[in-house]
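User: Show me a protein chain along with its predicted structure.
Assistant: Here is one chain, sequence first, then structure tokens.
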Amino acid sequence: MTEFEGQVLADLSVLKSQMNELIGIGQPGRLHELEQRVSGHERAMQRLKGMAGAFGGLLTAVHGLIAYFGGKH
């Protein structure tokens, strides 16, 4: 085996171990953990959008009541 072939095999071994760490071998790897974090963030953003919409609707209703009872109807 030449020096070049040895270097290629060593680099492939390192690449294989890094891929196993990224994807995981029978257990969740880094990629799965990242997917879980993104999914949790998306759920939080959807909840925040819903709360902002509800708060906007509530403010609109309060403004309507103030305008109605304030004599501007």
